[in-house]
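Hi support team,

I've been running sequence recovery on a batch of backbones for a student project. Most finish fine, but this one hangs at about 90% for roughly twenty minutes before it completes. I'm not sure whether the input is malformed or the queue is just slow. I've pasted the structure tokens below so you can try to reproduce it. Let me know if you need the job ID as well.

Thanks,
M.K.
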């Protein structure tokens, strides 16, 4: 997802999401409400550092894995899905 507006366009059965914007607590809550099957959220390092401790704790309580990584070079207008490499969990 490249913006907050993308949250409402996601399918309910999404399991892994890459967020490439600074997500607020309300964005995270809305994401989990719209996509209850999410198990992993990946952030670029610089956005991951902006995630609040409360948001991080909430995701941990929901059993959601946080990962750091980029999908640089992927074009959402051509293909909205890409493979997330099994790099490192946060």
């Amino acid at each position: 997802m490249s913006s907050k507006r993308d949250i409402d366009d996601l399918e309910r059965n999404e399991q892994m999401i890459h967020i490439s914007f600074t997500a607020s607590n309300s964005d995270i809550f809305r994401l989990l409400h719209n996509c209850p099957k999410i198990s992993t959220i990946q952030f670029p390092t610089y956005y991951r550092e902006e995630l609040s401790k409360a948001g991080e704790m909430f995701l941990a309580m929901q059993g959601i894995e946080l990962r750091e990584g980029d999908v640089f070079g992927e074009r959402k207008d051509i293909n909205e899905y890409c493979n997330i490499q099994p790099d490192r969990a946060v």
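--
Follow-up from support: It reproduced on our side and the slowdown came from queue contention, not your input. The mean pLDDT is 81. No action needed from you.
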